């Protein structure tokens, strides 16, 4: 793997989430000042809730911010596994209620059926000003999983912005931003907490193919890892 970007360790999760929320808000404000609008991508899953809650309270011209998920599970929004529901619950309220959500899911039979209707709005909001990613213990990031059916396509330099994805490690089909979208963000953060993730990161930083550890696709593009135990 080419040299990894910086890593910032925090003494605890409260400090980490507050620092990241402040940093992301500052970068979005810079993007708005420079270009009139800014786009933010955030992860789903179990880690980012407190960061998203704090971000929702920050002072920013949220009416100029577009927000999308890095990936979504193809489940109804009523499911507790819906990343969109997480986003509505934690980020899209208070001051951040004025932001525009670019959806990564819609009602339909399959990810393939809804994807064309989603791609245009995603494309129009790119490039990402700030991309915050999570990582699973299997070293997947967004929904780019080791062993996934469209892994090679998602990692290819000419990948489309969005792909449907099915993987042995994912309980449901997914829709994910692809590696070129994630790695071309102006600022990339990988948000990690806990010993299991620290161990996975150590494995991901070893030399090896990106297919085995998809998070390498962003680590090799200067992503800043922010971590607390
Ligand atoms: O399934 C997913 O997993 C990753 C990691 O989630 P976590 O629960 O271990 O924090 C997440 O980044 C991704 O957005 C999500 O869809």
UniProtKB/TrEMBL annotation:
Key words of the record: Hydrolase
Pfam families documented for this protein: Glucosamine_iso
Pathway as given in its UniProt record: Carbohydrate degradation; pentose phosphate pathway; D-ribulose 5-phosphate from D-glucose 6-phosphate (oxidative stage): step 2/3
UniProt-listed GO biological process terms: carbohydrate metabolic process; pentose-phosphate shunt
Enzyme class: hydrolase
Molecular functions (GO terms): 6-phosphogluconolactonase activity
Keyword Hydrolase tagged: yes
InterPro entries: 6-phosphogluconolactonase_DevB, 6PGL, Glc/Gal-6P_isomerase, NagB/RpiA_transferase-like
Record-annotated Glucosamine/galactosamine-6-phosphate isomerase domain positions: 12-224
Keyword Hydrolase belongs to the record: yes
Reactions this protein catalyses: 6-phospho-D-glucono-1,5-lactone + H2O = 6-phospho-D-gluconate + H(+)
EC number: 3.1.1.31
NCBIfam families: pgl
Family: Belongs to the glucosamine/galactosamine-6-phosphate isomerase family. 6-phosphogluconolactonase subfamily.
Role noted for this protein: Hydrolysis of 6-phosphogluconolactone to 6-phosphogluconate.
Protein name per the record: 6-phosphogluconolactonase
């Amino acid at each position: 793997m080419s040299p990894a970007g910086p890593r910032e360790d925090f003494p605890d999760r409260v400090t980490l989430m507050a620092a990241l929320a402040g940093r992301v808000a500052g970068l979005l404000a810079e993007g708005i000042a420079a270009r009139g609008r800014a786009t933010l991508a955030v992860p789903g899953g179990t880690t980012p809730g407190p960061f998203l809650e704090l971000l929702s309270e920050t002072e920013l011209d949220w009416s100029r911010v577009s927000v999308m998920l890095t990936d979504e599970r193809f489940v109804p929004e009523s499911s507790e596994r819906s990343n969109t529901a997480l986003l509505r619950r934690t980020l899209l309220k208070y001051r951040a209620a004025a932001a525009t959500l670019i959806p990564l899911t819609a009602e339909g039979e399959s990810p393939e059926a809804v994807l064309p209707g989603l791609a245009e709005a995603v494309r129009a909001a790119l490039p990402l000003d700030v991309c915050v990613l999570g990582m699973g213990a299997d070293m997947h990031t967004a929904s780019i999983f080791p062993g996934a059916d469209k892994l090679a396509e998602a990692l290819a330099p000419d990948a489309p912005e969005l792909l449907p994805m099915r993987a042995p490690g994912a309980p449901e089909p997914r829709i994910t931003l692809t590696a070129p979208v994630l790695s071309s963000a102006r600022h990339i953060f990988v948000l990690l907490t806990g010993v299991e993730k620290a161990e996975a990161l150590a494995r991901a930083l070893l030399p090896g193919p990106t297919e085995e550890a998809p998070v390498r696709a962003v680590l090799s593009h200067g992503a800043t890892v922010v971590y607390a135990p």
